[in-house]
């Protein structure tokens, strides 16, 4: 049934008062339903249709007053508490690259422009993050299955035909080699959140299908030497299963089975000794609280700008700087985890949970490696280590989290604003 012309005009004028266009569609639905209810109440009271429409509009309230209230409710503020630690950590990472580039012998030895490239990656990443924060993440839902298929296909191509660097296959794009393995967990989390947000794990057929969907990319990763990425992916799959209401029995069975090979590989590496020089780790114990040196001895370790950036921070800037970096990243992870609790749309909640677990796993594995508590796993520190693909993907993930935060309570806020306006009238 077509809405009455007066109702259409009212809602059109109302939407003009609300700057956040993301809520216009759902708001129109809520307002029209409320107006129809008020109109029916008037008709039941014996009013004519014209009188019932006029009364409904009157009871709804002045369009300017309601519009101002809804605009205030739906300002969709930027989540500064999430952005701030990331920007500071990124700036700190950029400073580290500056010192590596201009105040150490590392850049000359490796023939790399780590600072200039990092600056470019961060700038592009920030633009992507800001753009995606305004993007309606719910539009990604319909692309979940194609994204999964595409990710698995590219992963297969990378595993079969990629150029191997330290055992890790890189995707060949002609103009560059991309570490697709490293960004796979982020892409899988985005696709898994859409696929499993309404999955029925109680159905036996769908249960086996779900396990197969989760296991396929994990099995492909396990065929490579990317132990850290495999572990991160398995933990992310576990989080997705739990948040999509899979039973504890199903989740434990999947996690325990897929963890066998990574644990065996870790045990083998521990038997062979860590890949980071023991003398370099000992230097951590003698590092000053504020910092002792900005001169890196490059023959101690070759991956200081990527996998062992935390070790370099302790060695060159001191434990205070390292602790600040840890606190910033830890606060960021805790912040996005707490954000997930306030999200009412299950797809958005699962997306944030998956990304939070991915960041947390990456963070923990990186710290364990840098402190010599684990064999060298080749995992980058989020937002700080050098690398184009992981910085861009992490900024994109942050943009999605900000987009979800902006829209986390849309339906609830509309109802509250309406009730408040009706109460005032």
UniProtKB/TrEMBL annotation:
Pfam families, A to Z: FTSW_RODA_SPOVE
Residue intervals passing through the bilayer: 82-99, 119-135, 147-165, 171-196, 208-241, 312-338, 350-371, 383-405
Keyword Metal-binding (UniProt): no
Protein name from the UniProt record: FtsW/RodA/SpoVE family cell cycle protein
Signal peptide range: none
Compartments, as annotated in UniProt: Membrane
Primary location class: membrane
Membrane topology: Multi-pass membrane protein
């Amino acid at each position: 049934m077509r809405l009455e012309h007066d109702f259409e005009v009212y809602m059109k004028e109302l939407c003009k008062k609300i700057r956040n266009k993301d809520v216009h569609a759902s708001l129109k639905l809520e307002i029209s339903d409320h107006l129809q209810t008020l109109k029916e109440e008037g008709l039941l009271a014996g009013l004519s249709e014209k009188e019932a429409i006029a009364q409904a509009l009157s009871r709804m309230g002045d369009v300017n007053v309601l519009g101002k209230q809804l605009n205030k409710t739906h300002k969709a503020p930027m989540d500064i508490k999430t952005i701030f630690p990331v920007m500071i950590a990124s700036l700190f990472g950029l400073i580290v690259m500056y010192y590596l580039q201009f105040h150490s012998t590392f850049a000359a030895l490796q023939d790399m422009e780590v600072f200039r490239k990092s600056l470019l990656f961060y700038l592009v990443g920030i633009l992507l993050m800001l753009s995606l924060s305004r993007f309606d993440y719910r539009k990604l839902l319909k692309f979940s299955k194609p994204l999964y298929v595409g990710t698995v296909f590219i992963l297969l191509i990378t595993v079969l035909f990629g150029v191997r660097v330290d055992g890790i296959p890189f995707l060949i794009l002609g103009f560059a080699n991309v570490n697709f393995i490293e960004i796979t967990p982020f892409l899988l989390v985005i696709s898994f959140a859409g696929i499993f947000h309404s999955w029925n794990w109680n159905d036996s057929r769908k249960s086996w299908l779900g396990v197969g969907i989760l296991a396929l990319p994990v099995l492909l990763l396990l065929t490579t030497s990317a132990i850290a990425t495999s572990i991160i992916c398995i933990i992310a799959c576990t989080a997705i299963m739990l948040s999509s209401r899979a039973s504890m029995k199903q989740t434990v069975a999947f996690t325990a089975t897929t963890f066998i090979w990574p644990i065996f590989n870790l045990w083998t590496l521990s038997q062979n000794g860590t890949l980071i020089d023991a003398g370099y780790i000992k230097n951590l114990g003698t590092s000053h609280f504020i910092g002792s040196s900005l001169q890196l001895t490059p023959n101690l370790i070759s991956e200081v700008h990527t996998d062992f950036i935390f070790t370099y921070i302790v060695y060159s800037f001191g434990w205070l700087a390292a602790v600040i970096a840890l606190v910033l990243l830890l606060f960021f992870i805790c912040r996005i985890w707490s954000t997930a609790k306030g999200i009412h749309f299950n797809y958005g909640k699962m997306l944030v949970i998956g990304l939070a677990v991915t960041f947390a796993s990456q963070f923990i594995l990186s710290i364990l490696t840098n402190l010599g508590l684990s064999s060298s796993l080749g995992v980058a520190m989020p937002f700080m280590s050098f690398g184009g693909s992981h910085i861009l993907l992490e900024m994109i993930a942050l943009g999605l989290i900000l987009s979800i935060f902006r829209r986390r309570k849309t339906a609830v806020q509309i109802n509250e604003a309406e009730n408040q306006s009706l109460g005032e009238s």
